[in-house]
Amino acid sequence: MKSEELARAAVRALTPYQSARRLGGNGDVWLNANEYPEAVAFSLTQQTLNRYPECQPAAVITGYAAYAGVKPDQVLVSRGADEGIELIIRTFCEPGQDAIIYCPPTYGMYSVSAETSGVACRTVPTDENWQLDLAGIAAQLDGAKVVFVCSPNNPTGQVINPDDMRTLLEMTRGKAIVVADEAYIEFCPQATLSGWLADYPHLVILRTLSKAFALAGLRCGFTLASAEIIALLLKVIAPYPLSTPVADIAAQALTPQGVAAMRERVTTLLLNRRQLIDGLRDTPCVEQIFDSETNYVLVRLTASSAVFKSLWDQGIILRDQNKQPGLSGCLRITVGTREECQRVLDALNKQPSLTAAENP
Hints:
Layout: H1 3-6, H2 9-12, H3 20-23, E1 29-30, H4 58-68, E2 75-78, H5 80-92, E3 99-102, H6 109-116, E4 120-123, H7 134-140, E5 144-150, H8 162-172, E6 177-181, E7 203-208, E8 221-224, H9 227-236, H10 244-253, H11 256-281, E9 286-289, E10 296-301, H12 304-313, E11 316-317, E12 319-320, E13 330-334, H13 338-349
Parallel strand pairs: 1-11, 3-4, 3-5, 5-6, 6-7
Antiparallel strand pairs: 2-8, 7-8, 9-10, 10-13, 12-13
């Protein structure tokens, strides 16, 4: 018997998440992973690599709790928010018995994490405005333990209607955990649900340092929830989820000075987003620009596959969303520096005039 035949059937059949780095590319304008476009300097201060790190480093936990406006026992730090997704599924879902619900088009790791854990996935597509189909969720709720909602949503960029979120939380009370993925919340902080945690003990919020904090390479994420849920997740998490250098840099990023610097970066990116959107409005191949509350813009283009390849060949790497439900002809453009945004606009304006029929 071949080794691969010994693997679980679900893993053999699994299509892995296609991260930006896994997709590859060869370019100098990387606008496909929603990263901050410029490096931020940090210095390592901890020289104790001979010792194992704390499971939940106190400086990181207290720093994030102060930033998020919650108590330290309501915070868990992990290897990116992706580990938070996995921990929630492993904690609350019985393999082969329970299910998760998610609402495409949305982030792909919810389904990948569930499938690798032997947990069923139920999809309830969003409506034409990419808002929740509450009736559809209600119809699928029996046997579902976790409902994932990304807000602002990746890749569409819009915030989920807070009234709908409240209805969802009431609907699921005593039945399922609701996970609000707020990876992009720094770009619209007024939309956070962190103030709702006291009212909804089954609400869980995912956060990250990868976007506005400009630390995608650090792999550091957070889960905010009731102290009871955090205690459960701590039973499942790895013994040492954060290396000492990661905890060192994360603690620096969460100081008052670090948070202030993050907010300055957000201000700059929002100005760059405005420049990009204004330029896209005057670009012939752009058919539709969708509203964004994030550091990326979703656009529908004429002959999007040809445009994507043309820019790829010029070293401008965007994210193709054609295969996502309802996103035919769409590309997602991360907001880069002003110069990078201009490179994109210049390249798009040089595209030949093609008809929609040529857009596969």
